[in-house]
Amino acid sequence: MGCANGENDFTACEKHLDRVSRTFAVNIRVLRGDVYRSMLLAYLLFRIADTIEDEPSLEAAAKIDYLAAYEDLFPPGRDWRGKVDRFTASLAVGGDGADIELLLDTPRVFREFVRLPADAVSTISERIRETARGMASFQRKATGNSAVVLEDRKELERYCYYVAGTVGLMITSLFFGGSTTGRRVPEKVFERLNARSVPFGLGLQMTNIAKDFQGDRERGWCYVPRSFFLDAGIDPRDGFAEDGRAAGLVLGRLVGAAMENLDEAIRYVLDIPRRFVRYRLFCLWPLLMAVETLALVGRSGGRLTEGEPVKIGRNDVRRIIMISSCAVFSNHLVEMLYDRSRRKVNIAAGN
After folding, report:
1. Which of 344, 145, 185, 327 is nearest to 262 (CA)?
2. Contact in structure between 215 and 142 (CB atoms under 8 Å)
3. What is the C-alpha to C-alpha distance for residues 168 and 164, in angstroms, rounded to an integer?
4. Over the range 280-294, which residues count as b (16 or more CB within 10 Å of their CB) and which as e?
5. pLDDT, position 1
6. Residues in CB range of 305: below 8 A, 6 or more apart
7. Using a CB cutoff of 8 Å and minimum separation of 24, what contacts does 265-269 make?
8. 249, β-bridge pairs
9. Residues 279, 197: contact at Cβ < 8 Å?
């Protein structure tokens, strides 16, 4: 059910957030003030690009055109209302659900977006343009009815940069790089955070790729690099559900790559000054959830190719939030929490 026309635009945006990502809504709601508004609207704007990329009713050529038109909406100019209305009116999507409702409600999101502080609008616009352009470049790999397959780890990291590394850079800028927060960190701290922003995003995105492996295959994408499969003696284009052991090895490599990046992500969290407790929690919760998810992926192994879902339970989410909220002020305790979750990944991998 869509958002009622008569309600406040920002309230409608909050409802969209709850519908498209209940887990991420928890992270965003720990924030306050302009940073809360900026992050919520940024998430929805990035999600709109994701929806265009993922919509199965659209051919690759249409996705490329829509992503180019979406990129052109940023940064909003004087004629932003007309451009957004024309973009929305041009959409011809056959799907439904919360993501499509958000996509068709793009004008409402923009009405709130343009009210953000100028530096937030500029930061978000820069990163969304980069993301939309990058997504379109990967859509050009789709030919005919063949599955889109990433070739190697370098290409995997490039894709993850466009869809998540850019988000990491944006978050660092919104939290620490401008007047939106009113509280800047020392330049050396900002440089360390900025350097780890991309690995943070890559680690979270690789986790999503691992847990969504089968669903992505069913819609014609394989984000796990082809080289990972070839090294295990199989070709993803030929099908491999019957070879659970080889598929387990392939996913094990992806888990390893994700953990390399998440090991940088925990350093990012520890570099956030403890007085920014809400920013720490915002980053710590998805990080710990990602590591727990990768442990499940490791235990599932080749069974993922049979379509078994991989998702941590609500009780696990509550546990992570409760324990980390108590530990967040102590770097030592935060490291202990991370190491405890990481050991589960090592055990699942047989290390």
Report:
1. 344
2. no
3. 6
4. bbbbbbbbbbbbbbb
5. 41
6. 213, 214, 240, 241, 244, 247
7. 265/196, 265/199, 265/200, 265/203, 265/204, 266/334, 266/335, 266/338, 267/192, 267/196, 268/193, 268/196, 268/197, 268/199, 268/200, 269/334
8. none
9. no
Q: What are the 10-residue block averages of pLDDT along the chain, 351 residues in total?
A: 64 96 90 96 98 90 96 97 97 90 97 96 97 94 67 95 97 81 76 96 95 75 86 70 69 93 98 96 97 90 63 92 96 97 86 63
Q: CB within 8 A of 48, min separation 6: which ones? A: 70, 102, 103, 106, 109
pLDDT score at 180: 46
For 239: left if phi > 0, alpha if psi spans -120 to 50, otherwise beta; the answer is left
Q: Which CATH class is domain 146-351?
A: mainly alpha
Instruction: Say if residues 27 and 280 touch (Cβ distance below 8 Å).
Output: no
Q: What pLDDT, on a 0 to 100 scale, did the predictor assign at position 146? A: 57
DSSP label of 276: -
**pLDDT for position 257:** 96
At residue 121, the pLDDT reads 97
User: What tokens does 268 get?
Assistant: 């990012």
Q: Where are the domains of the chain?
A: 9-117, 146-351
Q: Do the beta carbons of residue 279 and residue 185 sit within 8 Å?
A: no
Q: What's the CA gap between 312 and 293, in Å, rounded? A: 6
pLDDT for position 33: 95
**Rg for the chain, CA atoms, rounded:** 20
Residue type for 173, please?
S
Phi, psi angle pair for 344, to nearest 5°: -65, -35
